[in-house]
Amino acid sequence: MNNISNTNKQIAVVTGGASGLGLATACKLSKNGITTIIIGRNKTKLLEAQEQIGQNCFHYQFDLNKLEQIPALVQTIVKEHGSIDILVNNAGINMKKPLIEVTDEEFQEIITTNVVAVFSLSREVAKLMTEQKSGSIINISSMASQYGIPKVIAYTASKSAIEGMTKAMAVELSPLGIRVNCIAPGFIATDMSAKALNNDPERKNKVLSRTPMGKLGSPEHIADAVYYFASQNSSYVTGTILPVDGGNSIGF
């Protein structure tokens, strides 16, 4: 990987980069001179995000559930941009539903998007990074992997898998010059969290009461952590899971 002072030659890919944590992350990377590629399914949102992020941003409309097309996507990005130095696996879906009502199909859909697609994309990008002998892969998990949260069984399973994959990937890829780390966001003020909390005052009060800092985080807090892992500031850091949660994971 080039030194962070030479970031104009760095290429980052951010999945789910058109909104929420992904958009904030893409803005942060681009602002710091990293050419940033955002991937998402909604063309309108991608175009709006690209305009917001600026000239240093490109977008690819792509459904990551189409696993068989991921290798071609990676090859297209490399052909058009030269390399991939940073991969941020941010895209994910959630579903709030009692465990006994979740169907096999619903469970599988979340696992496919949140785990299998992350694996497939990371595998293809790791092939490239192995040739480069450098790279940084940053996965996004969740507080749901730290403790039991009701009515999000599939999401919890998927994010627990991401944390396990982060460690396994780091052990295998770090000797090849590729660092792999994970960020576990706490409760961040996004559209996704708003849907989960705003109609459930009891749940929201519980979240805030066990968060020592007493407030929700912002997408920019996650973006700052991603940038740390993307930069040479974390050049000797790999295989870690960093809670960015206002202390929620240790709150009482």
TrEMBL record:
<keyword id="KW-0560">Oxidoreductase</keyword>
<protein>
    <submittedName>
        <fullName>SDR family oxidoreductase</fullName>
    </submittedName>
</protein>
<dbReference type="InterPro" id="IPR002347">
    <property type="entry name" value="SDR_fam"/>
</dbReference>
<dbReference type="Pfam" id="PF13561">
    <property type="entry name" value="adh_short_C2"/>
</dbReference>
<comment type="similarity">
    <text>Belongs to the short-chain dehydrogenases/reductases (SDR) family.</text>
</comment>
<dbReference type="InterPro" id="IPR036291">
    <property type="entry name" value="NAD(P)-bd_dom_sf"/>
</dbReference>
<dbReference type="InterPro" id="IPR020904">
    <property type="entry name" value="Sc_DH/Rdtase_CS"/>
</dbReference>
